[in-house]
Amino acid sequence: MGLLLLKGLPAAALLCTMAFAAHAQAPPAPAGPQGITAPRILQPFNPNGAACSPPPGLTRTLVFAQDNDREFMQGVARGLALAARDRKLEYRIALANNDARRMNQQVQELRATKVGAVVAAPVDPRSLAPHLQQLIWSGAYVGAVVPPPAIEILNAPQYLTGKVLGDAAAAYIRQKLRGQAKVVLLTHDSLQFLAPRFIAMRDSLRGMPGVSIVADLSPQTVTKDGGAAAMRTILLAHPSVDVILGADTVVLGALQALRDAGKARPDQFLGGIDGEPEAVAEIKKGDSPYKASIALNSPVFAYALGQHAADWLEGKSIPQAMDILPTALSAANLTQYETDLGDPGAVWRDPARRAAYLAMYGSICHDTRDQYLNFPWSSERASERR
Fold this sequence. Notes:
This protein is α/β, with parallel strands linked by helices. 39% of the residues lie in helices and 18% in strands. α2 runs parallel beside α3 and α6 (224-237) packs across α7 (248-260).
């Protein structure tokens, strides 16, 4: 919640990947424990858990294995940098620029140089997985923005995140558009980790007889350019649309396409996920078609990941998983949100403010690292609710 999240997912968004068919070879090393592979319930994190031994022979270095440089990921990078500064960790970024093979090689190099902590936003989760496992077996902290495997998985309650946005759109259609709307969904359904948010949006609009989903598709790339290209194609068949929903970065691109075509109207409802600064700026205008963004405060959750990385290196217990809780931005809460965005350390130090953004589950430390998560964790999994 992204990063919800989106921003997804994620944005991200949030938290999103390119569909690369990467064929990077797994690093040559003996096999280690496979972690927890079957979904299970994780109890709330106990911050007073027993300490254990710190990982030996690793550097106090935190590296962000970053998929691309979109705004949501820039927020992640900034939160990690602030946490590293506050905990006296060396910090750097390994930017892959959407190249899965390059990311795999970068992570191999991090293991070879005995880096102590890595946070990964994968380009291609499947091909990166064996490289992350090698890091885990070495004793390093591995935090993952959504896909496993990881010592700590960061995810958003994806269905809830999508439902918050879908319900806001449905309410707007009823109140401002007299129940009539042509809707465009710009999805990431090819990513199993993010698909629930779009199921939720469809559920929110289902049963509204005046609503027609005229386009339901995934842009070729999860970028503004990808959103703009998709919207230009949609406008050829549907020159008038009322509602557009998706991750902020692609919806912002769709907004640009509407403006370029002279099809943007103040009464439209454009809404996204990730709370990206440009989306927030549009909402502030008051007369923009952009009406809502579901924020997954990336500097706040990244600061938490950085704190947990430092704790891990000092032999402390940390959560195995963390939810980014979605925040529906409005004129009423924008000021506080932007304050928190600018100073994630202050949020971390205030338990009440921190609990508004994050929920933590499970417990793990270096001595129990064989219990790392190797399944797509979500607090919303049906198997976990039973």
